[in-house]
Amino acid sequence: MRQSRRLAVCAAGTAVAVGAVVTGIAVSDGSSSKASKIGYSDNAARQAAPVTAQAADGTAAARYKWGKPLRAENFNGKAVNKKDWELYEDPGKNKPGGEKTKRRPSQAKVKNGILTITGLANGWSEGMAWHKGIRKYGRWETRVRAAKGCGCYHPVLLLWGESKPAEVDYMEDIQDPNRTHPNFFLHYGNDQQLQQQVRVDLTKWHTFAVEVTSTQVNGYVDGKRWFHTTKSAAIPRGTLAPTIQLDWFPGDSRTHTGGNMQVDWIKLYKA
What we know:
With 271 residues, this protein is mostly beta strands.
């Protein structure tokens, strides 16, 4: 199992724009003050458009009638079920880029049906992969929140591509101590990526979902689609492993304090 990496956004602060159609959410395309659907060219470079999510009580599964989940993890036990989850152990040395997370299972706790991953000021945190959620194509949905904390800590919900280099970060909050603008990153090819950003208060519960098929990738927040691409080169073709990570990038903050993220549940649906 590979562990967390984050490919850098272009130095100018831009990213490869999503070939996106955002439904049911107000979006500005930068050329008009009116809400609109976006239809960016997949190979164009421009600022990722902000998206504002609304009601925090919906799910993509309910809105789009995904049916019963194939698998579900509700964290009802007294600890993380190690039969279903791989807990990372890593001293944090020799990692590429700015990610220096030191991982140990003791940083992940389960209590009252909630998983809490706690990151310490010195970089000790945790990440974990859900064995039962591994699938080539599917729909994954997770209820999550993250407390305000050091911008050096990045709460991440992602799918790792195991048989071909791919990474689908369907919620990653970076350099954001207030937890207000998580991103969707779809990494592919030779350090290429598609990106979108949404404005939500991550200190409150929200559901983030991702749908991967042979022809498209979609991202959802609280039942509303905010990321979409049909770019063939960007679509993962191998097995995908869902993981939950709290990553440490010490270079993202002058001072280092702690951080945490909590997960209520994660579910897998057939695509």
